[in-house]
Design a protein that fits this description.
Elements lengths: L2 H25 L2 E6 L2 E13 L10 E3 H13 L5 E11 L1 H12 L5 E9 L3 H6 L3 E4 L4 E4 L12 H20 L5 H8 L11 E4 H6 L5 E2 L2 H20 L5
Parallel strand pairs: 2-3, 2-4, 4-5, 5-6, 6-9
Antiparallel strand pairs: 1-2, 7-8
Length: 243
């Protein structure tokens, strides 16, 4: 093949790859980092978690029907070594958020989360769903009971369903972090801290002190921890001792 033609095709492939990256950032808020001999997939959870109901167009949302297929692809792709989950969310649909959190928690690949700005409400289970979690010093996490917008059927079964759904959140957080169910429930039901609701607001170090998040840190710390997990995973697969 003519060298000029080969060069043209290589340039075209590079352009396509670059275009795909830009499209993924614009449409899905994702990007793959292919440096240092490893491939990290960066997934961002921002705004509200959109679930079964479509939110107004002016709302900044993360759609769960976009995130779930990505998680399946990440888990099944041998070229991807790890997942970096970055959160700045106000919460959203409880079932959708729990579904995403459960999928991340069940992944076999190394995973690390970083809370920037806020990881509120259902964002808390998502933040603790990874193998290790970081929170920026200025970031906050709001922990409160489940709430519902709109009309509900005022019968005992409705409140029982709410209680059971809330227990699912408590169980998941306690299982995937160092906080106990009792302590998390106490933060959830605390009064006097929020103006119009019960609950607790935790800042960066406070979230670590309570045992919800593993460490205060930023992007460099998150990537360094994920790189370490990837090296451990490779050594284990190759049958080498892990340092």
């Amino acid at each position: 093949m003519n060298s000029k033609v080969m060069f043209a095709k290589q340039s075209e492939n590079k352009e396509e790859t670059h275009t795909e990256k830009i499209d993924n950032i614009k449409e899905l808020g994702t990007v793959s980092v292919q440096e240092k001999g490893r491939n990290i997939h960066c997934l961002t959870i921002i705004g509200q978690i959109e679930g079964h109901m479509v939110l107004p167009p002016q709302n900044k949302t993360t759609k769960y029907e976009h995130v779930i297929p990505q998680l399946v692809a990440i888990e099944d792709d041998n070229k991807i070594d790890g997942l970096l989950l970055i959160l700045n969310t106000v919460g959203g649909d409880v079932e959708a958020g729990l579904a995403i959190a459960e999928m991340i928690a069940s992944m076999s690949k190394p995973t690390v989360s970083l809370v920037l700005g806020g990881g509120h409400s259902i964002g808390v289970p998502m933040a603790v769903s990874t193998r290790y979690s970081f929170i920026a010093p200025s970031a906050t996490m709001t922990i409160h009971p489940l709430r519902l917008n709109g009309m509900i059927i005022g019968v005992p079964q409705t409140f029982e369903y709410f209680d059971r759904m809330q227990e699912r959140v408590v169980d998941f957080v306690a299982k995937n972090s160092s906080i106990s169910k009792e302590d998390f429930r106490q933060l959830m039901l605390k009064t006097g801290e929020l103006a119009n609701d019960v609950g607790t607001v935790l800042f960066g170090q406070e979230a670590v002190d309570k045992g919800i998040i593993d460490e205060v840190g930023g992007l460099a710390s998150s990537l360094e921890k994920l790189d370490g997990f990837i090296r451990e995973s490779r050594n284990t697969q190759e049958g080498e001792p892990v340092q």
